[in-house]
Amino acid sequence: MKSIALVGGSGGIGAALIAQLCERDDVSVIHATYFKSPASSSLGSIGQFGTNTEVQWSCVDITDEQSVQQWLAGIPTIDWLINCAGFLHDTQTRPEKSVSQLQTANFEKNMQINCLPNLLLAKHAGDTLKRAEKGVFAAITAKVGSIEDNRLGGWYSYRASKAAANMVLKSLSIEWQRSAPNVRVVALHPGTTATKLSAPFQSGVKPEKLFSTDKTAALLLAQLDQLHDHASGRFVAYDGEELPW
Ligand SMILES: NC(=O)c1ccc[n+]([C@@H]2O[C@H](COP(=O)([O-])OP(=O)(O)OC[C@H]3O[C@@H](n4cnc5c(N)ncnc54)[C@H](OP(=O)(O)O)[C@@H]3O)[C@@H](O)[C@H]2O)c1
Prior knowledge:
The chain is α/β, with parallel strands linked by helices. It has one domain (2-237): NAD(P)-binding Rossmann-like Domain (Rossmann fold), CATH 3.40.50. It has helices at residues 12-22, 65-73, 104-114, 116-129, 156-179, 213-225; strands at 2-7, 27-34, 54-59, 80-83, 135-140, 183-189, 234-237. Strand 1, helix 1 (12-22) and strand 2 form a beta-alpha-beta unit. Helix 1 (12-22) packs across helix 6 and helix 3 runs parallel beside helix 5. The mean pLDDT is 94. It binds NADP nicotinamide-adenine-dinucleotide phosphate.
């Protein structure tokens, strides 16, 4: 039975993953985090998602090392750690269409939420994950973080933070190939998914390319289930396509 640590359980994709993980018979407990949205309808209450699976919610600021450390110190076993937290826009800022729109504070916020937490999570969950039989350290990054695949430009801060997150995950996979060979590290691209993160940018997306959170969660779980058939350190899309870094 798996113990799962899921960061960003209050988000669109994170909440859908929790709901589906609760339906499985190989998951005993989910340690889920929220940050600012405990009262939102997407979060629900403890136990809402299933009867057999325990969901333990914690408020964690994943940009704050002490907050991350305290949360992980209270979790005795982790088989899968899934980071679903992320940031693209807020009421003040939208992704840059041109470099003239760059704001230092926005760049730093993207790096702080989209990149740094992967390092903090790895630092403080590593020893626990190393004891798992078939461990997984997965983070949802984004295809727009691919340098090779970048054809449109723009979105400087978000793209840079996701590319940096990919680099962190790749390096981690190399380190853990030696020190934690039982753990697969993966960067996941979920596809464009109807959540509050993508809401301002959905109008130009073809309906068949805009996934529901349920569809994305099912596709991502299928990828997570197959990770131990492959080497660690891959950048994989929802449909299993290997993406260029
Ligand atoms: N949706 C898409 O089309 C799409 C496409 C490509 C990649 N992605 C990536 O997929 C991931 C999930 O996105 P989503 O669409 O589900 O977004 P979302 O619905 O906006 O959820 C974002 C999550 O991140 C959490 N979060 C933000 N800042 C945090 C912080 N400082 N500490 C802790 N948690 C924090 C939020 O918590 P609170 O709400 O509680 O503050 C929320 O749970 C992100 O990494 C995103 O970049 C999404």
